[in-house]
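User: Hi! I have a protein structure encoded as tokens and I'd like to know what sequence might fold into it. I'm fairly new to this, so please keep things simple.
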């Protein structure tokens, strides 16, 4: 990476400060680029604003550039960071702008921020999006290091979904964006292998997402039965048809399966038809999306959390369920082998038989066993996945990238 003029001076000064003081005292400015923070656009819309807040709490100057709908529906409300994070919004006035994620608007806004704040790093999130190309253009023009976070969008399953379009996009622009990156940000070790399989040889910082754990959990309301909860987007990659088939095979007495979350591309309607054909009317409840403020009540009502997904880069809902003391059943499509290592859940192949067998095991556990599993899960999350720890690790990765660290941190794979 080449640095000219004022940038050489600035980075030499930063290195001097780093070697003569703690890293929290440096003048470090980072711009995060995220195509959308809409509540219905998945976990990245929540985790990137939270990461921005965590970095700001560590003394990093943080700017977030993101698109927001001009007149959002209730489930489209953006999730924007609080605190000392500077948010720069690109308003999407039309359906075409929402479809294209307004590349011209992103360019104008991002370049204006770069000229104003002279960032040390541009940290871009996602893949296959016009905003990723814009972030790379601007980083190259400004001669600023680019950190690229694939956010689970280059897993084997993701690459196979709409494979023809992604092959074309890879050769047209995405591989060039990735090759420009000075550092990759992975939220799980599996993403390291995904990036290496694409031929990427740059260093990769493995920095997980965190979870904001409430000080007190809501009390579960009294109920006559047990409840298994799914809380995420209703999307084909989440594996819900396999879960409905498993539920129909088992038909557990006294249990209800609740599916909570926004539907994407009509998938809820497909699932409702499947549930009706399987004779699950009344046994499966489709509750739609819930505001973030209300999700902890859903966790409190649950006796088991189920995420039968084909692919996740992290699975923030797994961490949230564990934080709420709910045992979790999920698949090896998520980076959660700790469920079995810490005896707080089940981690099985994303295959119908494996999901059915694990579900049968989970449903027949006693209340006392599930309670003990939930407590172990909360201990795991509070010891490893707080946003404070995540913010510290990400700031250390920036420090190392800019040449201020004396040695490579253990979480960076060179």
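Assistant: Happy to help. Inverse folding works backwards from shape to sequence: for each of the 414 positions I chose a residue that suits the local structure. Here it is:
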């Amino acid at each position: 990476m080449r640095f000219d003029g004022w940038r050489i001076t600035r980075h030499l000064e930063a290195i001097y400060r780093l070697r003569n003081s703690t890293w929290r005292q440096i003048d470090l400015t980072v711009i995060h680029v995220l195509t959308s923070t809409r509540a219905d656009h998945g976990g990245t819309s929540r985790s990137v604003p939270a990461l921005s807040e965590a970095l700001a709490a560590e003394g990093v100057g943080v700017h977030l550039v993101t698109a927001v709908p001009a007149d959002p529906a209730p489930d489209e409300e953006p999730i924007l960071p609080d605190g000392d994070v500077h948010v720069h919004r690109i308003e999407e006035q039309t359906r075409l702008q929402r479809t294209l994620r307004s590349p011209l608007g992103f360019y104008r806004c991002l370049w204006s921020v770069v000229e104003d704040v002279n960032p040390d790093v541009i940290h871009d999130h996602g893949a296959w999006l016009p905003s990723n190309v814009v972030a790379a253009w601007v980083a190259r023009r400004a001669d600023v290091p680019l950190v690229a976070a694939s956010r689970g969008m280059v897993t084997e399953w993701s690459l196979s979904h709409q494979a023809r379009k992604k092959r074309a996009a890879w050769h047209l622009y995405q591989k060039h964006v990735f090759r420009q990156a000075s550092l990759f940000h992975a939220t799980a070790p599996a993403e390291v292998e995904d990036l290496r399989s694409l031929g990427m040889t740059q260093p990769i910082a493995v920095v997980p997402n965190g979870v904001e754990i409430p000080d007190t959990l809501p009390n579960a309301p009294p109920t006559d039965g047990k409840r298994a909860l799914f809380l995420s987007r209703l999307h084909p990659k989440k594996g819900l048809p396999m879960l409905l088939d498993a539920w129909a095979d088992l038909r557990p007495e006294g249990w209800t399966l609740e599916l909570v979350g926004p539907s994407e591309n009509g998938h809820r309607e497909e699932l409702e038809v499947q549930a009706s054909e399987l004779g699950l009317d009344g046994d499966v409840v489709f509750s739609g999306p819930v505001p973030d403020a209300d999700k902890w009540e859903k966790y409190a009502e649950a006796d088991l959390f189920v995420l039968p997904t084909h692919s996740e880069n992290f699975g923030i809902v797994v961490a949230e369920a564990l934080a709420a003391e709910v045992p979790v059943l999920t698949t090896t499509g998520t980076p959660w082998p700790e469920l079995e290592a810490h005896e707080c859940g089940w981690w099985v192949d994303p295959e119908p038989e494996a999901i059915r067998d694990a579900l049968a095991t989970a449903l027949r556990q006693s209340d006392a066993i599930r309670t003990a599993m939930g407590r172990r899960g909360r201990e795991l999350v509070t010891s490893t996945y707080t946003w404070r720890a995540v913010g510290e690790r990400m700031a250390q990765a920036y420090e190392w990238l800019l040449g201020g660290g004396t040695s490579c941190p253990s979480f960076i794979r060179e």
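A useful reference point when you look it over: The mean pLDDT is 87. Feel free to ask if any position seems puzzling.
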